[in-house]
Specification:
alpha+beta, Aminopeptidase, Alpha-Beta Plaits, 2 domains, 12-stranded mixed sheet, 5-stranded antiparallel sheet, binds zinc ion
Amino acid sequence: MIQPKRITDNFLSLAAIDSPSYGERKMADRLTAALKELGLSVEEDGAAEALRGNAGNLFARLPGTGTPLLFTGHMDTVEPSAGKKPQLHPDGTVTSDGTTVLGADDLAGVTILLEALASIREDGLPHPPLEILFSVAEEPYDRGSEVFDFGKIRSREAYVLDLNGKVGGAAYAAPSICSFTVTIGGKSSHAGFAPEKGVHAIAAAARAIDKLKMGCVDGETTLNVGMIAGGTATNIVPDLCTVKGELRSYSHAKAEALLDSVAGTFSRAAVSLGASCKMESRFGCRAYEISRSEPVARRYADACEKAGVQPDFFRTFGGSDANQLNQHGIRSLVISSAMYLPHTCREYTRVADMAKMAEIVRTMMLHA
Ligand SMILES: [Zn+2]
């Protein structure tokens, strides 16, 4: 049986632990103990070293018979997160004290998974082999799962509990997300005495940015320049300008083409003013799409209906560990984790919604 009281206690104690990206040590220790208590074997990988954080990804297994199934959540939370103080309200809503995020993203997802595992164990019901992945550093675009050894995973299907919005939600498609940094090198010179001897790095950047189509590039692609820095004094022609941005698209090919085009625009603008230009980029997420008729989607829809919940499939324009899993051939759906207004200090969750999702996850775990 799903136990709302246990969900409440677990969530309040997990959300009270500070667990910023790259600083998930306490959370990893707590979850290792919790998973072992539930009868799972747990191993921690070398992500701490690889990412210069203090904890690795946790990978846990519960033996069973049949086709294995993977469930995941992430251990890190966005800032501001130091000193989180979860507040339980009489109606079962949980918020922060207003000065930090709550961390329901993704500790509600983690709590849901622990509850489903606990109830299965208590009831002694047969189940397939279950695999659990709790990743570190998901928020900085899947840094943790990116270094995970996917060869350890036997499951070919997975559910990522990391979606905001109402119970029953599922994201069947997600975009490629690429972040980039352009460094434009000019030449400094006194702006009053000899401006003609300088090469204006900021002007070159401005020329390029003016030519870029920002915002919605087409129906499934966006581009944004979000940060710009450069110059050292008002009376010096700036010799350096750094521009940071990101682009997203449901089509990976379109994302790659847009990245090429952005690089070309900066390069031409720099050359036209005699400046140099260098671009670094990283695809943190790669686009995927799951069909409603695939077993991984049907299993979720069936479990929702059994719980009296209307399944709601939609596309998300955000990334998650499902991007990494799908890239490694594990068909993955991101499903609701009973979190609302994540990445704000008004973030909240509801005990009843966590309980409902735990019921849905439990059903999927039992009938893989
Ligand atoms: Zn998340």
